[in-house]
Amino acid sequence: xxxxxxxxxxxxxxxxxxxxxxxxxxxxxxxxxxxxxxxxxxxxxxxxxxxxxxxxxxxxxxxxxxxxxxxxxxxxxxxxxxxxxxxxxxxxxxxxxxxxxxxxxxxxxxxxxxxxxxxxxxxxxxxxxxxxxxxxxxxxxxxxxxxxxxxxxxxxxxxxxxxxxxxxxxxxxxxxxxxxxxxxxxxxxxxxxxxxxxxxxxxxxxxxxxxxxxxxxxxxxxxxxxxxxxxxxxxxxxxxxxxxxxxxxxxxxxxxxxxxxxxxxxxxxxxxxxxxxxxxxxxxxxxxxxxxxxxxxxxxxxxxxxxxxxxxxxxxxxxxxxxxxxxxxxxxxxxxxxxxxxxxxxxxxxxxxxxxxxxxxxxxxxxxxxxxxxxxxxxxxxxxxxxxxxxxxxxxxxxxxxxxxxxxxxxxxxxxxxxxxxxxxxxxxxxxxxxxxxxxxxxxxxxxxxxxxxxxxxxxxxxxxxxxxxxxxxxxxxxxxxxxxxxxxxxxxxxxxxxxxxxxxxxxxxxxxxxxxxxxxxxxxxxxxxxxxxxxxxxxxxxxxxxxxxxxxxxxxxxxxxxxxxxxxxxxxxxxxxxxxxxxxxxxxxxxxxxxxxxxxxxxxxxxxxxxxxxxxxxxxxxxxxxxxxxxxxxxxxxxxxxxxxxxxxxxxxxxxxxxxxxxxxxxxxxxxxxxxxxxxxxxxxxxxxxxxxxxxxxxxxxxxxxxxxxxxxxxxxxxxxxxxxxxxxxxxxxxxxxxxxxxxxxxxxxxxxxxxxxxxxxxxxxxxxxxxxxxxxxxxxxxxxxxxxxxxxxxxxxxxxxxxxxxxxxxxxx
Amino acid sequence: xxxxxxxxxxxxxxxxxxxxxxxxxxxxxxxxxxxxxxxxxxxxxxxxxxxxxxxxxxxxxxxxxxxxxxxxxxxxxxxxxxxxxxxxxxxxxxxxxxxxxxxxxxxxxxxxxxxxxxxxxxxxxxxxxxxxxxxxxxxxxxxxxxxxxxxxxxxxxxxxxxxxxxxxxxxxxxxxxxxxxxxxxx
Amino acid sequence: xxxxxxxxxxxxxxxxxxxxxxxxxxxxxxxxxxxxxxxxxxxxxxxxxxxxxxxxxxxxxxxxxxxxxxxxxxxxxxxxxxxxxxxxxxxxxxxxxxxxxxxxxxxxxxxxxxxxxxxxxxxxxxxxxxxxxxxxxxxxxxxxxxxxxxxxxxxxxxxxxxxxxxxxxxxxxxxxxxxxxxxxxxxxxxxxxxxxxxxxxxxxxxxxxxxxxxxxxxxxxxxxxxxxxxxxxxxxxxxxxxxxxxxxxxxxxxxxxxxxxxxxxxxxxxxxxxxxxxxxxxxxxxxxxxxxxxxxxxx
Lengths: 815, 186, 299
Description:
The complex is a heterotrimer of chains A (815), B (186) and C (299).
Chain A: H1 15-18, E1 35-41, E2 47-53, H2 55-59, E3 63-68, H3 69-73, E4 102-103, E5 109-115, H4 118-125, E6 129-134, H5 141-144, E7 160-167, H6 169-177, E8 181-192, E9 201-207, E10 212-217, H7 222-234, E11 241-244, H8 260-271, E12 276-279, H9 282-288, E13 292-303, E14 309-321, E15 348-357, H10 371-389, H11 393-400, H12 423-434, H13 436-448, E16 452-461, H14 469-472, E17 485-491, E18 497-501, H15 510-522, E19 529-532, H16 550-577, E20 584-587, E21 590-593, E22 596-602, H17 603-612, E23 624-630, E24 639-649, E25 654-665, H18 672-691, E26 723-726, H19 744-760, H20 775-787
Parallel strand pairs in A: 1-12, 10-11, 14-15, 18-19, 25-26
Antiparallel strand pairs in A: 1-5, 2-4, 2-6, 3-5, 7-15, 8-13, 9-10, 9-12, 13-14, 16-24, 17-18, 17-23, 20-21, 21-22, 24-25
Helix pairs in contact in A: 10-11, 10-19, 15-16, 16-17, 18-19
Chain B: E1 5-11, E2 14-20, H1 26-33, E3 52-55, E4 58-61, E5 74-76, H2 89-96, H3 106-119, H4 125-131, H5 143-158
Chain C: E1 7-9, H1 14-24, E2 28-31, H2 37-42, E3 50-53, E4 63-66, E5 69-73, H3 78-83, H4 85-90, H5 93-98, H6 104-109, H7 112-118, H8 125-131, E6 135-140, E7 143-148, H9 149-152, E8 153-155, E9 158-159, E10 166-173, E11 178-187, E12 194-204, E13 210-218, E14 225-226, H10 228-234, H11 241-248, H12 265-289
Parallel strand pairs in C: 1-3, 2-3
Antiparallel strand pairs in C: 4-5, 5-10, 6-7, 6-10, 8-9, 11-12, 12-13, 13-14
């Protein structure tokens, strides 16, 4: 196949409308007669609702109606949880569209206003009087499981939703009993707030004549939203709902899920027989749109003095919030526990996870979803182990890597076999590019001048394009559906191609990437391809965009449809050229008879012939139109090594980035420009977790970081330039040999940053710091060590040149 | 209901007369009253800059101004940047350098960069990063945004426009005509 | 996030503005740049029923230099200060500090007077005004009065401007002699406000002999505060790093420290010491170099 487009840094086809302000985001949509919805959220984290008085709000001029949980109760059900942890009991509690008797977190919706305009709707919220009886609260997952903790749900004793394990408990216990070295560390993987720049929104329109609903939703998965709303929440037949996802201003997972507002606008549009618009404001977004991470893990690593890791044990309390969000239990189980050993051959591993309810916003998938937590666990522990035995962290990684000949590799944790990899190659490339020996030398020299430079590694592997359905589904990992992807490809009479994908891009550039593939496969100009998505009407059921699955699964579905088109076109060509199919070759966008280049038919000619149907092989249907539902045989497993170099100011604890280098292996790349962009953005989100972001609740369950004035997402001035490079280890799971790039950066970067900062502070004897690495946290850690009577490490005092740690920084450095 | 006020605002060269409630935010006036939805709302607390427009020649956050405050002013929004199908160098830069992913922050980001290039036609990377502190992007990690602004600065320099600033008087807009061939290889 | 309703007035003279403020009393708020007030209104943490927009009063805008004094009108924006050639020459700490306030859009609308009158404990200008011995001109129903910066910042979010009054101008004496000045800031990663900001001015004789010095701190406590003990320890001393570092240890004296989830009281005490030392070093360096805007750059 000639590749005119695939592999090129093609600028995006999506951009022309977005750079002139012609995008069509949720709040840009206005329908005739549209009313505006404002939602009242509970100010209490845990309370009984004693009464709701809407009379004053209803009386405000411009208010159309005010509804409470009791009003919606008869017509709607609780939202479903579509991914429960596999093979264990899940004590499921999901929210109703509006709370009726009890609220479980600050942000739980209790009533909503419909008004002629947004300003009036907002005014009316202040006039709704709700009487609450506050109940005791708990916000920390581990504390919530303790005896005597406040209980959220009757069916979840000790607030435990599920208790899940992976690996070999007995073997792991033995490995630890026999280990030369054991290092234990409590790890906090703090709560994050996804913060897509566009908040969520929902618009509902009901047609009384047809009894049909049209919903515009902030959706990473419009077909799934339709299915869940229809079958579980609204009691409306699926075919009576159309869901449209317009331009979406980022999601990062938070727009996969089903939310109460979706049901609210649908229900109210029918109740009042007019279109309803609800647009979330940022405060609401922070209060109730699902958060991410929030694990407390007690981790232990076992190994030999010469650097072999023999065991890994982790007990994790995963905070799930006040209710289960749509796929919450699957994240800290399948996507975390089963990836806990990362890139290492660790013979004995045991992971135990408690999914716990607390009086906080629901926690669900956020960019990386489980894999950042797993990578942080193993990469932090490997560094702790390296430090303990005095070995260079790169060397310890090298000694324990899964080797190229080990693939397909079964990690023993119930994950599908890793498809392909060469972890050492990526590490070596990173060491070479960063100039590792020299860097360590600089570090030593800097230390002699009282400067604290650190080098941190993260060698990661993650799982993308999660599949096949039989494995992920209800009899396996608990996912409540299939996990395939659809594509339809049509070649019209004029030779123009319409591709419809079940993926739901919101910034990932699918239109460009998929067009590149289709144009090359059909040998046509890229301008002749259009890619459609994001509308349940007339588009085959699709599962959506998340989990770095879109190219691996959705792209493959497109490829297979194009292949079917070409198979059919070939038959038509053989018929028209009066040749046998075996004598035809595909070359330069044509089928030609071997040895007679003049006897050829282009795909456009064949599309015309197929469309008009004047002369087709006997029994063949007209038109080139093929649909595929692709269920892949396996997931893909991208990997790489990131190296972060920092300097810490010991007086203030401030961290400065000196370098950040990433060598990623995402398999073959369709559009390097787009992949680099995904990596940049991904790295910054992981870096942000390491450095700045944390969703904080006080003990009463109030979100302390409730606006962008408190919750620090990175600004341009806070992040460095990234040096990117790639190794290419294709996968055989899909025809592109591509793996997935949307989450890799986020999965890799947080541990690289933390490891770098801990390395910088090694002279003080600091072995671990929890995220985020706020200046105060670093400063305190330094102070503590300075004030401590020194043990193995002599803590330097201000200004003096500190002696090194027990091991010299450069020992065992290899590359 | 508070007394409404008549206002006259010129946006992208077109003058509008409206009667507005004092609390109407400028961003809602632009988006809902005038229907110019390219200007976005991202944070509601003046942090994110998605609502950035040029008001009387300076970048402002239109979510932190009331429409009445803009009475008598001239505004430029993302919709007014391209002319006769010719993209502004910043728009070209963002496209060429993949300076956007979801595109939501992009209009505000471009308007902020526009303000920067008015004052500093040849900014260094740290200067660009400092100047964009009021615009949050969650997708790109900023690296390509910095490149986009540098790209635009090069284009504007190579075109040696008579005036890099946007003259807000009607009929005085510089012709910002660029061709892709004018892009210097980076 | 929609503000509550209010009546809006846009007077064109100070007299008119003061009349409106008098008329509406506690119900009224002055709208200057609005970058503190409007977000509070949108969060419904503030709900004034009347706004008096003072941006259309020409006499409140601008920078004037006369006989050793610079007078800055209350609605002069941070951006105007940032770009002022006059200030870069005679009071370079002002334009330098302006570059680290908020972001460009905030600086384009936010005002010098608004920021001072709001007395946000994490604002940047209070430290600068305090260190420079600024004088605030306040006009009220009974006429005009002048309040020195040292008496202007009363408490958390409370300045000497009473309801019904308007801060109109700020006068700053241009220090003479061999002077260096610097504002050093540790900003909050989200809000950009000062977790700690230190404005330091040193006046030197030969060989780094300190004739006078002035240090003011913002962000750390309930209000901007002069570091009097540090100043006293440095006057009539030869300045070097060790001397200044030692004196900076006392910089927190008199501050009613605040703490939050990002930075505790204890940590702010540390920041005050470190940033006082750094501001002094930068000021000393500036004095030695012959002050220029370049020397003002944040370390």
